[in-house]
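Case study.
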Amino acid sequence: MSAPVRKPSTDVQKDASMAKQKDMIESNFNRLGNVKNTGEKVSYTFVPGNLNELIMCFDMVGNYPEINAIQNGLRKKSGGMIMEAEKWGHSEDVCTYVKSDIGMMRKGNIGPTGLPIPEPDILMLSYTGCYTFLKWFELLRHEYKCETAMLHVPYTADGVITKSMTDYVVKQLKEEVIPKYEKVSGIKFDIDRLRENMALSAKAEDDFVWVLESAKNKPSPIDAYFGGIYYIGPIFTAFRGTELAVDYYKTLRSEIEERIRKGQGPITPEGEMKTEKYRIVTEGPPNYTSMREFWKMFYDEGAVVVASTYTKVGGTYDYGFRHDPSRPLESLAEYCMHCYTNRNLPERTRMLEGYINDYEADGLLINSIKSCNSFAAGELMMMREVEKRTGKPAAFVETDLVDPRYFSAANVKNRLESYFQMIDQKRRAGV
Amino acid sequence: MATREDIITRCQALYDDLDFTAARDWKDAKEGRHVIGFMPMYVAREIIHAAGMLPLGILGGGDQLEVIQGDAYYQSYICRIPRSTVELLLTDRLDFVDGMLFPSICDVIRNLSGMWKMLRPEVYSHYFDVPQNYMRDVGGEFYMHELNVLRHDLEKIGDITITDEALKNSIVVYNENRRLTRELYKFRSDTPWLAPSSEVYLINRAGMLIPVEDHNQLIKDYIEAASIEDRPKRDNSRVVVSGSFCEQPPLNLIKSIEMSGCYVVDDDYMLVNRWFTKEVPTDCDPIQALSYTFLEASVKMPSCFEPDEDIKGLYLVDTVRENNAEGVIFAAASFCDPALLERPLLQDVLNDADIPHISFKYAENTGQMQPIREQAGTFADSIKLWS
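After joint prediction, the assembly is written out as follows.
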């Protein structure tokens, strides 16, 4: 019988980098909440395929609706927002990020930190790896009647990026995106400024990859899923291409170097994880409305996530991609196409197989998200294929991103405990 | 001359046949023939035709296919068309297909393209990307490249060369198919009591399964036969059905809408057969012609970005007015992202235009029609009473 689900402690332990990350994310909300005074223009955009280096060339502040939904989910505010959107006719079947965003808007557009989220001056619709993005910003455009720049990023269906695909994205940047940003901001595009931003991105990306790959150590000094969510915050959002991000990843790296030196495990909300019993690879986003509860189900059992695909939605840097200032627009195009959900299923499966082998993991856990077809469609097949190729056991749980109605703690915990037992049995059998 | 009943009986048999016997027979009739399957929403069938191959529309398994294996590939919150399509594959009903095309309609069908690669690595499968940028030198160039990739892939499969001449001939045949389909829709809109939606649906569905030349003749025969019949005109409300462009509603649902007192005067089932709103020109490079026509004369539908907010959704208002419709029924497949995400926006546009609407969801195997009849019937009555 499954042990009862215990609520996590309210005393949260954080290391310095986590506090720094939190301050950075909050500072962007503060900047957004203050545009009436500063006069800054606002650009909404998405995490996968975000063009932060380019947006900064126009002195605009970025608003990331997915991040708002996540932050509202973490603060247990998203449920009411989703129901508000459903009241306005949005289907119960569709993405809860969208509904959380629309619900927030309908309730007065007060952001997760309590400050107002300003209306967009431009919607940067980077259509990268997620069909819903396209509809999401059409819905927002319908509300705000503002300028919208569409960037269609071709899907890498054959596992390769062709010249035609890159040319297509670059042309859109030149003929659609940049002219619209120039028009809205009143600032002329400066390619050297873009190069400078991209050089900073590449610096941060080096340290970010080092952090992710530190999980190859035993014990792993990081949790690459629950902890990883903190680590991706700056580089996936408004800070990529800034000195702040470079500094953050340096700090984070030195913290982790120290943990490796001391042979320490990851920091959880209840302190350092002392014993690493299971090394897990995860596929899919986490649940945000009960994230601590979810995480606790892992660290209570001594399970650490050593690699996750979710931390690749904003770029697959561990596969070698770096923003390249010497060919800025082509590099931005390649960045977008490299994002995880823009990769085809065979590639995604190969990545998971590689993570299990490279990180010497005990198995794969898929957290399948009810409202994210981009991730979820095909995951059951990927799971079976990874099991077949690696011989490692896999498990499947179902939750949602920010809809609390789809997180059933007892069910998830029960399944996780069974899964960890299965790993034990496999070990005993010498598999 | 074939009677209307004969034509519909043939189309019903084609519709019911989940082994695709007609396409198998076509392939077996001559050595070296190939069949290329495609899923909704749109592929350039002209290129397949120009290769001497048969484009075969795969629209799921409907309500007669028991899905057993397919369910093991999908979570409960994903629509039914991919699971029944996987079932068709795994039960060898598609074992004669030489290639599969997956248009960029949504993430589920997109990911199915990758699953196909893993399930049947020996069979050609291709994600058919279409541009969301409609500038000739941007999206047009990209799309021409995509079309040429398909052209070259088919040349390889068939060990043939697809000439420009063959492409132009195929464009002519499909221009005719689209013209006839529009004529059929107009015939239904003008005289819906002579062309019930269930029959028009079956005629169109046959076009997914047989050679286009046969289909052209079939449409002509049906219009001719149906137009001379004397069928009773009912006091139905005229409605447009919107949101059914991918996973298809069961035939009984289409019948139920009509039985409840609605004449369906336009719909978006199988948009591929009238995707272009004007003829594709044949006096220029055929690939360029297909590309530019796609950019500039495609039907409006939720999977395609609309760059102009001022006209977003107005296509639905236009079709209501052009067909003298009195309301819109939003009928979307459960968990269909394109239809369900678009719906609130379209409802808003209809509200502004003072056009009544209702909505419901279905699955291709929905069996219980009473709630649909009640809802559609109440809608039809409310139009008659209050509009």
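Observations recorded in class. The two ends of chain B are 42 Å apart (CA to CA). The domain at 17-164 of chain B is CATH 3.40.50.11890 (Rossmann fold). We will return to this complex in the next lecture.
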